[in-house]
Amino acid sequence: MMAQDNPLIRGIISDAEAKAEALAAKADAEAGEIIREAEERAKREAGLEKHSYELRLEQIELREESARKNIDRLSELRSLDAAYTQVMEEVSRRLEAAMADPSFSSVLVDWIAEAVIGLDRKEARVAFSQRTPVDEDTLRRAEERVKEMVGADVSLSIDPKRLSGPGIVVTSIDGKVSYNNQLDVRLRRYSRDIRRIVQEENARQNSR
């Protein structure tokens, strides 16, 4: 009698085949689950990578936009600086040209009076340059101007030292305090107002 005709052997073989089929089915199911999970993970990673790429791209675009704005701002600042320098040079040129006119003495009277009021001393000396000469008549007019403006009586005298740049410097008698009203100092004093005017004019022209 052959072995497969033996009921016991047939049962063992049948059980073995059933177990083999069950294992194969389980293996297929597990393989399918692994593949499914792998595909889902790949999709998630692909989605995350895409999102990460989009974020990086957005950051690059933001940096490029910021760089463009900085370049535009620097260009605007250079333009404003150039315009400001041009205006300051023109103001200085016109003032220096006006100094050759005898009528400029009235401007010096105002500069001296302004300096005396700022110094806040009853007595003071006035230094000047060869290009902006001051005489006794100029001092008396300046004293009168101070009287008109603040009601104070002051006594001014000529300082023997001469200035290198145009304008005047008023110094207390003891030499401890002074008020500088030379041309270059006055221009620096009003530089903020002049720069603001240049900026406003530039903005007005750009809005046309």
Give a quick precis of the structure.
With 208 residues, the protein is an alpha+beta fold.
What does this structure look like?
- It is built from five helices and four strands; from the N terminus they run H-H-E-H-E-E-E-H-H.
- With 208 residues, the chain is α+β, with helices and mostly antiparallel strands.
- The chain has two domains: 3-61; 99-193, ATP synthase, E subunit, C-terminal (hypothetical protein PF0899 fold), CATH 3.30.2320.30.
- A hairpin with a 5-residue loop joins strand 3 and strand 4.
- The longest helix has 92 residues, at 7-98.
- The chain is rod-shaped, with a radius of gyration of 46 Å.
- It starts with 6 loop residues before the first helix and ends with a helix.
- The mean pLDDT is 83.
Tell me roughly what share of residues is in helical segments.
55-70%
The overall average pLDDT, rounded, is 83
- Give the SSE string: HHEHEEEHH
Number of domains: 2
Strand order of the largest sheet: 2-1-3-4
Low-confidence sequence ranges: none
Largest sheet properties: 4 strands, mixed
Strand content: 5-15%
CATH architectural group of the largest domain? 2-Layer Sandwich
What does the oligomeric state look like here? single chain
